[in-house]
Amino acid sequence: MNVPSTRPVAVGIDGSAESQAALEWAAREATRRGLPLRLAHAWMEETLFVPTPPDETVARRLLDQAAAEVSAGHPELSVTTRLVPDTAASGLVSESSEAELLVLGSRGHGAVIGFLLGSVSQPVIAHAACPVVSVRATEARRTTEGDEVVVGLRDLGPDSGRLLDFAFTSAAVRGAAVRAVHVWGAPSMFGSDVPDMLQQRGHQPVEDQQAALLSEALAPWRERHPSVRVAERLRFGNASEELLAATSHGAAMVVVGRRLHRPRLSPHIGGVAHAALHHAACPVAVVPYG
Question: What distances in angstroms separate CA 208 from CA 183, 200, 212, 213, 238, one per listed residue?
């Protein structure tokens, strides 16, 4: 029997417009999921630079003010704060071990920033123990949310379970649909006519096999969430391009995966996740799996 999680939705706070948008998104998500909300601020300076003496009083005031504002807007929500005596990357990775998901702010078409500066962002996403959701500052100005959760599936075996669990749960709490995108074959440089050309040369059985595997991977989650509508998108070609195309019609969220076990200092998250974080207009959830 599945026991409902009581771990919080955690959100990184630094006072920027990006983290403010992340905070509001995280508050709505915690409310949808019936989870507490935890505001975290990692207040120590990165040692690559000449550090400014940290001011714990200022950091505490920042957290308390943010907590008061979100509590006023969401009085039903259980809100706690945590002042993390660490640098942003290390502190937030540690925070992820106790969270159901971790929410970060990002800005436009570029590297995730906000309280994360430059190369600090990818190590957090690459090494977090829980799913990490990147929220753009522009999300604060959206008046409506899309009606689909798009999930990119590279592996259709048991490893896809964590991505599908997150995608179907996120869709269920929104009353949204799931659009499952699976791209097979090598990245194409020949254009959209390649699938027809391959089929004429006898590759149709390969596509049929991939379609069957996709339906098989989705079957248990359709059964667990019968109210969630499901659309399957099977394509040959470039996974990043196809996933971004699927989000172009106002998706509520895009869900991508990254391998759980990576070298400790490696910031790599995978090409598809990297493309989604840089170019998707909606929030991007990066789910560790494998």
Answer: 13, 14, 6, 9, 18
Residue closest to 286 by CA, chosen among 116, 177, 135: 135
Averaged pLDDT of the chain = 84
Higher per-residue pLDDT: 73 or 51: 73
Q: In the 3-class helix/strand/coil scheme, how is the chain assigned residue by residue?
A: CCCCCCCCEEEECCCCHHHHHHHHHHHHHHHHHCCCEEEEEECCCCCCCCCCCCCHHHHHHHHHHHHHHHHHHCCCCCEEEEEECCCHHHHHHHHHCCCCEEEEEECCCCCCCCCCCHHHHHHHHHHCCCCEEEEEHHHHHCCCCCCEEEEECCCCCHHHHHHHHHHHHHHHHHCCEEEEEEEECCCCCCCCCHHHHHHHHHHHHHHHHHHHHHHHHHHHHHHHCCCCCEEEEEEECCHHHHHHHHCCCCCCEEEEEEECCCCCCCCCCCHHHHHHHHHCCCCEEEEEEC
Which pTM value belongs to this model?
A: 0.87
Of residues 67 and 203, the one with the higher pLDDT is: 67
pLDDT digits (tens, 9 = 90+) for 155-168: 898 889 999 999 99
Q: Which amino acid is at 31?
A: T
Cα–Cα distances in angstroms (integers) from residue 87 to residues 38, 45, 73, 83, in the given order: 18, 6, 29, 11
Average pLDDT over residues 229-253: 92
Is the sign of the CA dihedral 260, 261, 264, 270 positive or negative? negative
CA neighbor of 150 nearest in space, from 36, 229, 237, 66: 229
What average pLDDT does this structure show over 53-65?
Answer: 84
Of 34-48, 89-103, 116-130, 215-229, least confident by mean pLDDT is: 116-130
